Amino acid sequence: MAPVPRAVIDAARRLTGEDEIQAMMAESVQRRFCTTDLLTRELDQAGRNGTALPRKALLPLLAGARSVAEADAWRLWRRSGLPPGHWNVPIFDANGNYIATPDFWCDEVAFAWEIDSFRHHADPDGHRATVARNARYAAAGIVVLQTLPSRLRTEPDEVQRELRAAFRAAQSRPRPEILLKRVA
User: Fold this and answer.
1) What is the pLDDT confidence band of residue 110, given thresholds at 50, 70 and 90?
2) Which of 39, 101, 111, 183 could form a disulfide linkage to 170, CB 3.0–4.6 angstroms apart?
3) Which residue segment(s) compose the domain that 149 sits in?
4) Which long-range contacts (CB under 8 A, 24 or more apart) does 95-99 make?
């Protein structure tokens, strides 16, 4: 028996695929079995042997990414030259009404980036939720870009062009009053 962070890091040190490591670590955090802080602490106590890939895989998770696809998006955004933003933060309108929790949020220009996989959005409930979310974005005046996860690796240059174009579109209009915290 070992605590979850220890078990995750022990397993990660034995794996050789960054995607596998990232998926396992993200799953443990997303399902709230442990936190990124606990994984970091465990990595720091593990010494150096076999920790290079787990350390690399943990970086996007520390920034707020929740999956391998979001980690790919995190890397792509960092290379884009666009300003920093927030991963998986809830956003609200000026009255405190919840809008969404975008995969990525650039608060500077009120721009949302969603990494929308067919698998998680194709069933009737998932599709309904995605359409409702996009309607809330539109009603709030938010520019949103949706990207398929596979394109992050197969068409990274095209995705970066789309990101820059969507960012410019968000920059060109008055920023809507969108908040990262609910108004009390």
Assistant:
1) very high
2) 111
3) 69-179
4) 95/183, 96/179, 96/182, 96/183, 96/184, 98/182, 99/136, 99/137, 99/140, 99/142, 99/178
- Please tell me whether residues 55 and 100 are part of one structural domain: no
Domains held by the chain: number: 2
Do 46 and 110 lie in a common domain? no
CA–CA separation, 164 and 73 (whole Å): 14
CA distances to 112, 117, 164, 175, 183 from 106, rounded to whole Å, are 6, 21, 12, 11, 19
pTM for this prediction: 0.86
Q: Do 37 and 82 touch, CB atoms closer than 8 A?
A: no
CB 102 within 8 A of CB 87: no
